[in-house]
Recover the amino acids of this structure.
């Protein structure tokens, strides 16, 4: 069994109005120096499969990310059971 951690972010050049709103809110609360805020998604799940990487790629391409406007990356971590 493998723990999968997926990070999804907007592609460079795609406008991020949510990120811009958070950036402005932080500045309004006197957190100065914050710039280029981007908001993304994080998903974590376990997967039992003989072809983990292929399945995770398909999941990301078909449902977890919108490959037209989003990039994704993932990490795989072996789950040790006793």
């Amino acid at each position: 069994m493998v723990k999968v951690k997926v990070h999804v972010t907007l592609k460079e050049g795609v406008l991020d109005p949510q990120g811009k709103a958070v950036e402005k809110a932080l500045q309004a609360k006197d957190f100065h120096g914050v710039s280029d805020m981007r908001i993304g998604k994080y998903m974590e799940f376990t997967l039992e499969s003989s072809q983990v990487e292929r399945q995770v790629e398909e999941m990301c391409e078909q449902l977890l990310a919108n490959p037209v406007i989003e990039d994704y990356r993932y990490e795989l971590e072996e789950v040790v059971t006793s």
Observations:
- The chain has a mean pLDDT of 96.
- The chain has two helices and three strands.
- The domain at 2-78 is CATH 3.30.1280.10 (Mth169; Chain: A ,).
